[in-house]
Here is the input.
Amino acid sequence: MHNHLTIVTIVAHATPVAKLIILGLLVSIVAAIVIAVRKLGRGQRLSGGSAFLSGLRVGGPMAGALGAAWTLLNMAMGLSNAPVAPTAQMLAPGLAEAAFLVTLGLLTGAVAVIAHWSVEARIDRTVLDA
Here is the structure.
């Protein structure tokens, strides 16, 4: 029986550290969207949340890269201790986990950039109209 690799199986079989980073990135994406929606719907009151969005623009991709590096480090240590050379099919889940972490980090950064730009444009319009 052949196991198919999907996003769900990647996350299910990820290391605890990678799962924690994945969870943090997913929560950050949702938080960025919620902050942007709340700030854009508040009218004149635009305080709070901008620092989070600004930090997430860089922090998201860095967290994804850190998770990928951690996964690849664990893979390298496992490879060096393996009695026989593993096949590409055996390595694929770890490589997919690293790629997923990088992708999720970039997605988090992109959502944060769009949310930050939207909020900043709203602030500019509010200030210029006053």
Q: What stands out?
A: The chain has one domain: 16-129.
